[in-house]
Every structure is written in structure tokens, then in C-alpha cells.
Amino acid sequence: MTSKVTPKISEQERVYGELRDSIMTGMYLPGEKLTEESVSRTFETSRSTVRLCLSMLERDGIVSLEPRRGFMVSKISIDEALELLEARSRIESYVGRLAAKKITEEKIEDMEFLLEEMNNAVIKQDYDRYSLLNTEFHGIIYQSAANKGLEYVSLQLKTKIIRLQYKIAHIKGRPERSIKEHAEIFQALKERNEEKTEGLLRSHIDGIRELILENYGLLEA
Q1: How far is CA 187 from CA 10, 26, 192, 195, in A?
Q2: List of domains in the chain
Q3: pLDDT tens figures, 32-80
């Protein structure tokens, strides 16, 4: 695949991305307070930048603004996560059908590269990196579907449970099963098989719901 130049990002984008990833990977725990002072020290930036990023994360549902307490990392119950995944399953499977019809060769190449990187992450047992690559993989599906409305709705659903999905990636045997499912989804997209892509994505996300039910106690901890 042709190497690509990484676009320069703003200070706000940098801090937003790093803070979001830190919450997703467990550096900050659900219910933990996030102060402008401590976050600005950690990410070596201004308090005004932190204030903007926290507001963006509140919009995403990743943090919440509590009266007299300030910004806190959002909490979500397992039952709420199951409901959100049910909605995501219906939306993303249809998005997959649209993507199979519209996906370009360039996007196919991007997905193939990501699959290789995901496989390498599993071999190295770097499950946090695997989760980030997984998010990029699904992002390409949405880009290919070219439906901003569906992309926005699904992003709201996914960001609310993103930390839970990071925990799922550490369950024994899950990454190996997941990489196989992603390879099948990729092949269906490559073949432009709309029905198969839709079915595989629904099965993939429904499988996450089943995994949560099977590991309820572990994920609640």
C-alpha cells in the first residue's frame, strides 16, 4: 500500500484524542473526577484547551458534567450497554450493505493493511492497539457507506460503550475470534457482496452482546 503523509493536527485535536484514548484504555476510571488543572499537567497543555476537550467528550457521552462536582468519567451499566449494542447491530449491519455497494479499491487496500496490523497486535498481545485498529477498520466501513446521518448515530452509540469494548478485547480467546470475523467481513466487502456483509456485521456485533452476557461479572468489575 502506498505510504500516506499524516496530516498535522491542532493542539485541541491532539489533547482530545489522547485524553479520549486514556479514558478508553483505563487510565481514568468510570466515576473519576477530571479537573482542568490535573489534565492540563498530564497532557502538557493549557486549561482552556482542556476545557474545550472536556466539553467535546461530554458531547460524546464519554464524560459527564455533575453539579458541584465538575467533569467525571461517565458510567454505564451492562444492561445499558446491551441495549446500545442491539441498536448498533441493526444500524451497522445496514451500513455494511451500503458500504459493499460503494467501497473503492483504495479503501479495500486500507482495510487489508489494517487487518495485517490487527493480526500483528494479536500476536504481540497488544490488545489496546488492537482495539484502536478495530475502531479504524469499522470507520472505513462508515466512510464507504457515505451516509453521514447513520455514521453520526452509530458514533454516539459506540462512544458510550467504547471502554467496555476495550475490556472485552482482553477476554481470553476474544481477539483471535474477532480477527477471524473481521477477515470474513473484509472478504465480503472485497467481493461487493451486500447481503453477506450485512449478515456478518450483524453476527459480529450480536456476538459481542453474547460475550457480555457470558462475562457479566468480570466486566462489571
Answers
A1: 36, 33, 9, 13
A2: 11-73 (1.10.10.10), 78-220 (1.20.120.530)
A3: 899 999 999 999 999 999 999 999 999 888 888 998 889 998 877 778 8
